[in-house]
Amino acid sequence: MNIQNRITSLFNIRYPIIQAGMVWVSGWKLAAAVSNAGGLGLIGAGSMKPELLREHIQKCKSATQKPFGVNIPLLRRDADELIALAIEEKIDIVFTSAGHPGRHIDKLKSNNINVVHVVSNVKQAKKSEEVGCDAIVGEGVEAGGHNGGDEITTLCLIPQLVDAVKIPVIAAGGIADGRQIAAVFCLGADAVQIGTLFAATVESSAHKNYKRKIVEAKDGDTVLSFRKVALMRMLKNEFAIKAVQAETNGLSKEEMVSFLDHKREMKGIFEGNEIDGAMEAGQSSGLVKEILTVQQVFDKLVKEYDETKSKQR
Asked: By CB count within 10 A, which of 93, 171, 275, 294 is most buried?
């Protein structure tokens, strides 16, 4: 994989492979390992208070000399604090999600920060470009965790985004091997963002039970629920099945919010509760066959990509 393009230049990385900033998964160990392997590691601030984020940033700086970034969900009540901390810690790259990037873009850009926003449709992509984002992540509904309500698949979303904006498009959602990387590059993407595959690595901060459940998952072992709250994809377990049934039975938005509660993700991902936890994961879980180190994942992805490209010649 010898690719130099707008994304590798923007972030000064070897490979156009970005690790998603996942809650309870993407701590400093994972981010540093991905950056050291030649990609772009992201610390997931979605499950961190400001001072914990500071600790992870500082430890990541000690563990890698390569570029890394921070993912900040903008709907968090303390998003302003998290952004201020990222600026204070002189972070160069911030990925934003779950909100409107325009509210914070001037502050981030005035501090020479490259800003990338996660989108799920063309309207969001155009707005991100208009307000000054440097790139966008186009995330298809195959992705784990929270998704766009339009439920557009990656294969359909990426070429539409490429046609709609001039800034680089990073493809995300259901990607876990080198063949898929080659495919989205053919669609016009400049990079990929990968979540579930990295969530199951040795360096991930997730619980061993969660990693094992990803490895055990087959093609139909994820479900979508919480459409009235914020669409979420997770591995099938007792909680997920109850959530789908509750939604089918017509529970109100308020009732679904109460059903989810704020600790479900922590229970499932970080504490490894296989029954009552929300084990967020993408459809790519069916492609994850073993728990590898981050370096082994990169070796595998590069080999698969190169073999795919050689067959096309």
From this structure: 171
Residue for token digits 């001072």? Answer: 51
Q: Structurally, what CATH architecture does the domain formed by 6-205+284-312 represent?
A: Alpha-Beta Barrel (3.20)
DSSP per position, the chain: -----HHHHHHT-SSSEEE---TTT--HHHHHHHHHTTSBEEEEGGG--HHHHHHHHHHHHHH-SS-EEEEEETTSTTHHHHHHHHHHTT-SEEEEESS-GGGTHHHHHHTT-EEEEEESSHHHHHHHHHHT-SEEEEE-TTSSEE--TT---HHHHHHHHHHH-SS-EEEESS--SHHHHHHHHHTT-SEEEE-HHHHTSTT--S-HHHHHHHHH--TT-EEEE-TTT--EEEE-SHHHHHHHHHHHTT--HHHHHHHH-TTHHIIIIIS--TTTS--B--GGGGG--S---HHHHHHHHHHHHHHHHHHH-
The tens digit of pLDDT for each residue in 185-242 reads 999 999 999 999 999 999 999 999 999 999 999 999 999 999 988 899 999 999 999 9
For the chain, domain boundaries: 6-205+284-312, 218-283
**Tens digit of pLDDT for each residue in 144-164?**
999 998 999 999 999 999 999
